[in-house]
Design brief:
It contains nine helices and ten strands. It is of the alpha/beta class. The strands form two sheets. An eight-stranded mixed β-sheet has the order 1-4-3-2-5-8-6-9, sandwiched between helices. The radius of gyration is 18 Å and the shape is globular.
Length: about 270
């Protein structure tokens, strides 16, 4: 499966931000301007990797036109046919050149403050840092018309979390928040072993961390709900539960552990 890249040759970045996309439309493309402003004011050195997952709406070409000459280190990866979000994230994490690698959705549902908190956790020594909507410091912002939807979504999430923790060796309550990051060491050691192509990638990543003794830091976020779109219908849930069983079989109990240097040891090196 060929992958084309609009790579720019520049100095190695500190952070790689991976944004998987499947036909995001004008709304997704408009987020580029906000992202560019965030990177311009950030004290960190970022690269952005858009991974176009079998897009058929012209997104790759539009992204290249938007980002050309922007002054931001950008790569646009594309392939066909559509393989799923998990495949796109795995590809982007492996392609990243940063010391730390973060992935989130192209619509930037999590704010830049949330991305910065994950980045800070990684810089402070966390090998893996994930957003947690169940963190005691997390907040939820939404219009009153979505209160009923938010309540139903919360209980669906709680039920799925219970199933995931019953099937897999997980202790995180929120496995599916779409903002996660890791050091380059973890990306290079674990990501090539991951097999999930769909939304279950989050659970497989956390399972791999549990089996290999990798600490996971949970970071509070501010969740903003603007509409009632959801991917957690009954059919999607059944598909996810089947995927959890496949992950359980892929990641049996293992004795190998990954030893992590402390933040001080990394700075000394």
């Amino acid at each position: 499966m060929p992958v084309r890249s609009g790579e720019r040759s520049r100095a190695q970045p500190t952070f790689s931000l991976v944004l998987p996309a499947y036909n995001p439309g004008p709304e997704g493309l408009d987020k580029w301007r906000e992202l560019q402003q965030f990177i311009a004011r950030s004290s960190r050195h970022w690269e952005v990797i858009f991974v176009c997952d079998g897009c058929t709406d012209g997104t790759p070409g539009q992204l290249r036109s938007l980002t050309e000459g922007s002054g931001t280190q950008v790569r646009v990866l594309e392939y066909s046919p559509n393989r799923g979000k998990g495949y796109a994230v795995r590809l982007g994490l492996k392609a990243g050149r940063g010391q730390y690698r973060i992935f989130t959705d192209v619509d930037l549902a999590y704010g830049f403050d949330d991305i910065e908190r994950v980045a800070l956790a990684l810089e402070s020594g966390a090998p893996v840092a994930i957003a947690s909507r169940d963190h005691h410091d997390s907040r939820l912002l939404l219009p009153t018309r979505l209160l009923g939807y938010a309540y139903r979504r919360y209980w669906k999430s709680q039920i799925f979390s219970w199933l995931a923790r019953a099937i897999l060796p997980l202790n995180q309550i929120d496995t599916q928040a779409g903002l996660k990051g890791m050091s380059s060491e973890i990306a290079e050691r674990i990501v090539p072993q991951l097999k999930s192509d769909g939304f279950e990638l989050d659970c497989e990543l956390l399972t791999a961390c549990a089996r290999l003794g990798v600490a996971v830091t949970e970071v509070p976020v501010c969740v903003r709900l603007h509409d009632s779109r959801s991917t957690t219908g009954l059919q999607a849930t059944v598909k996810m539960v089947r995927a959890l069983w496949r992950i359980r079989q892929t990641w049996p109990v293992q004795s190998e552990k990954i030893v992590h240097p402390t933040a001080g040891e990394r700075r000394a090196a």
